[in-house]
Amino acid sequence: MEVKALTKFARMSDKKVRQITRNLRGMNAAVALETLKLVPRKSAKLVAKTLASAIANAENNNGLSAANLKITVATVDQGVAFRRFRAVARGSAHPYKKRTSNITIVLSDEK
Q1: Is 88 exposed, middle or buried (CB count within 10 Å of its CB: 0-12, 13-18, 19+)?
Q2: Topology of the domain covering 2-109
Q3: How many whole angstroms separate alpha carbon 98 and alpha carbon 30?
């Protein structure tokens, strides 16, 4: 049985969030959640929130135990980028992007 949680439009670039999710694949879900609480990065907090949602989905919707869940897929895709402009010299403007990411976590029971 597989359970999925998705966070869309997380206000952090996908490269920064991928650094955290790269280490999570194959870990036990409860152990990964405790590990993420110790990492002092904003991206770890976003991934922990998504992982907690996936664990809650497994427990409430499918009746699975959190101790038996394993992270099978942890992907981060690029979301929409908000286009902004910054004022520079001589009355001109330079564009920049505020990037977002979509975080997907899939859990499965270890049977």
Answers
A1: exposed
A2: Ribosomal Protein L22; Chain A (3.90.470)
A3: 32
